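Sample intake sheet
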Amino acid sequence: MQLGRVTGRLWSSVKNPGLDSQRLLIVQPVLPDLTPTGKPLICTDSTGAGAGEVVYWVRGKEASFPFMPDEVPTDATIVGIVDEIHLGRKRTC
């Protein structure tokens, strides 16, 4: 799983029938300190996430699992909304 921030929403009038009634969101991957990294990508949404929320998402075969038994042709899916992030401080001896 990877962290990301929802930056927008995508509408498509022509798409694979398996994507009918699926929300498509634009996600900017981020590091644990919420610094943007990499290129934005399009994710299907299984959680109801909204703009500006920090989410975690999966890629690959697992991206279709939240929609089973439906067959959704997706390569990236938001599977959770992040409430809090706790970063531990390095200890010095």
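Comment: The chain has a mean pLDDT of 90. The chain has one domain: 2-81.
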